[in-house]
Design a protein that fits this description.
Elements: H1 3-8, H2 32-39, H3 43-50, H4 61-73, H5 80-84, E1 92-97, H6 103-118, E2 122-127, H7 132-144, E3 149-153, H8 158-167, E4 171-175, E5 184-187, H9 189-208, E6 215-217, E7 219-220, H10 224-239, E8 249-250, E9 252-253, H11 256-265, E10 272-275, H12 278-290, H13 293-296, E11 300-304, E12 316-321, H14 324-337, E13 344-347, E14 350-352
Parallel strand pairs: 1-2, 1-3, 3-4, 4-5, 5-13, 6-8, 6-10, 10-11, 11-12
Antiparallel strand pairs: 7-9, 12-14
Length: 356
């Protein structure tokens, strides 16, 4: 390891080589020079043990054990941020998430962390609440920590993040929502929404007779995924010669309270409802609880995204479950291959039917 890398392994401010070993009452943390003096070896050997390269440098197991024991006993900690500034790669990979409050994004964060660590990378995740300004701020902070790669999950303006990162020489990838300047990996929203709509229409035809349109509720009209799901929803109706009036296409946000308020104000809600998010589904469930039992029993719904509790309700006829594992398989493969440019890859979803 070169001298600058050795210095970067110190905790906090860089210390002079040869500084006396701190006594037990000192508030200062030990450096590799302190450890070298304690063990009776060179700072280079200590650095090699701490960074895991000691076997390649033919350092004995006995010496390595002594260094590690001393480091543990004296509370040695690596200054990672200083260290990465001395290397070409930090092995840090970042992810920007819009929300933690549904199972899809929660599973995405959890599996991403696991896979990153298995690949020898250090994952850093931050939530930006679907706020473009906060997304850009988060990207700047990621760059300050020398991330090697940044994954923008559900970002409202991924292109501005790509521009910022590209200027810093850092690659990005768009996950869940697409951009136009970096590779995009997302679920096949159109096909899944069309298939789910068919299931809801079949249930309504079986139980109440066919020919009536469903309601679409949830999401934002300017959101790519919502547009694709609306497209699939309308295509399934078109297949059966059913037209959907505009007042049944409700895209006033994902918030549960908006869905509940909208449904409470409607004089005549259709028997079949396509719910465009498990977040929106919370509002639909609160509305269902406000109905008389006989009316609630007449509702059939399907939800884009899966929730185990929503799946247990008697009104549920099907739920779309996005394939987080397949999405992340493609993500890590794209990162490894170094793919760039405006490419888009679609991942099929799974249709979960209620068990009887």
């Amino acid at each position: 390891m070169i001298a600058s890398e050795i210095e970067a392994c110190q905790y906090g401010d860089e210390q002079r080589k040869g500084r006396a070993v701190s006594d037990t009452n000192s508030s200062k943390r030990p450096t590799i020079y302190d450890l070298a003096e304690l063990v009776g070896t060179s700072p280079t050997a200590v650095s090699s043990v701490l960074n895991g390269s000691w076997k390649k440098r033919r350092i004995s197991q006995k010496l390595a054990d002594r260094v590690l024991k001393a480091a543990q006993e004296h509370g040695y900690t690596v200054n990672i941020q200083a260290s990465v500034l001395r290397r070409d790669r930090s092995n840090i990979v970042g992810m920007i998430l819009p929300k933690y409050d549904n199972r899809f994004f929660g599973a995405m964060a959890e599996q991403f962390e696991t896979r990153a660590r298995e690949a020898g990378l250090f994952p850093v995740i931050t939530c930006t609440q679907r706020d473009p300004a906060l997304e850009l701020q988060a990207a700047r902070e990621m760059l300050s920590y020398q991330v090697d790669y940044l994954i923008c999950t559900g970002a409202t303006d991924p292109d501005q993040i790509t521009d910022l990162c590209r200027a810093a020489g850092v690659k990005t990838l768009n996950l869940d929502l697409p951009g136009t300047k970096a590779p995009s990996i997302l679920s096949d929203n159109f096909t899944a929404a069309r298939d789910l709509t068919r299931v809801i229409l079949d249930a309504c035809e079986r139980d109440f007779g066919g020919g009536a349109p469903l309601m679409f509720i949830g999401g934002r009209s300017d959101d790519h995924n919502t547009r694709e799901r609306r497209h699939g929803f309308l295509e399934a109706h078109k297949e059966r010669g059913i037209s959907v009036p505009d007042h049944l296409m409700i895209t006033n946000g994902y918030a549960p309270e908006k869905a509940r308020e909208t449904l409470l104000k409607m004089a005549d809600v259709p028997n079949g409802i396509f719910v465009n998010s498990t977040i929106t589904l919370e509002g639909v469930v609160f509305w269902l609880r406000s109905l008389a039992p006989e009316r609630a029993a007449q509702i059939r719904y399907g939800s884009f995204d899966w929730d185990p509790f929503g799946a247990l309700l008697p009104q549920n006829v099907g739920m779309v479950r996005q394939d987080v594992s397949a999405l992340l398989d493609l993500t890590f493969r794209t990162m490894k291959d170094g793919t760039e440019g405006n490419t888009m890859q679609l991942v099929p979803c799974q249709l979960e039917m209620p068990t009887v």
